[in-house]
Amino acid sequence: MSRELFGHVAQVEVGSIRFPFFGGPEGGGLSMSFEVEKGRSGASNTAKITLANLNASDKSAIQGADRETVVSLRAGYRGADGNEDPPQIFTGSLFHAESERAGPDVTTTIEARDGGRQMRRARIAQSFAAGASVETAILACADALGVGAGNVRDAAVGAQLESTGSREFSEGTVLDGWAAAELSELTRSVGLTWVIQSGQLMLRRRGEAMQGTAVLLREGTGLLDAKRAGKAHRDAILVTAMLIPDVWPGRRVRVEYEDIEGTYRVTKTRETGQTDGDEWTLEAECVPLLAFGGAN
Description:
Blueprint: E1 8-14, E2 17-22, E3 31-38, E4 46-52, H1 56-63, E5 70-77, E6 88-102, E7 105-113, H2 116-121, E8 123-128, E9 132-133, H3 134-145, H4 152-155, E10 168-169, E11 173-178, H5 179-189, E12 192-197, E13 200-205, E14 215-218, E15 223-230, E16 236-242, E17 252-257, E18 260-274, E19 280-288
Parallel strand pairs: 14-17
Antiparallel strand pairs: 1-2, 1-5, 3-4, 3-18, 4-7, 5-6, 6-7, 8-11, 9-10, 12-13, 15-16, 16-19, 17-18, 18-19
């Protein structure tokens, strides 16, 4: 049964303040809209969340919060079993917050960056003994950045240092400096690239999609539309779907829509939602895997 038959569910957390939202016919108090943009590089993903008519205490607390404050957004659909625990689509650090009057409403807009402040400030100073694995060093960088391990354990399996062909540091190594820079150098040395998605460190081999089963996008699985982006975009396609948490930059997707059929790599996404409206969608730009030497 399509999840469209069930209401929208969302949860916003700003520090210790939590706001649950329940869309659909049941309504649910405050209203909220959001826009989350995610890219394929290590640059920060961004979120813009607008809350309407907060009480004075919550509004003041959010506007006075510092840039160490964690912002989290969960959004999805209420399941047939009544489950109201939506998947997390963004977590990051507060960048800016302000309130303004818009007609009869007072809106508070929150801008956040996925790991942005952490990446700018986090440092690492750690030595590894001879025989330490590449995976161990990458996980240490993730810990220093304050993000989750993501797919590191799967993606780093078999990763070899291009200089020696070994999976281990035969003479040990030292990571000392900005954690993001050390991570970039480390992943480059084993043919990987990295990005932070929803507070998790995600790795993939250069020029390839992340490993794993491709997400099937077709009518009946949440796909709403697909069209070609034009030759200037290397045969890229643009897809619009229901809000699907498993689709993010670097992920493989299998698209079947009218004359478009193939396996693609997602390069960027835009997720939008409005609790008092129908908008609850994902837009994604996707590039054929063959353009990067992949396989359908």
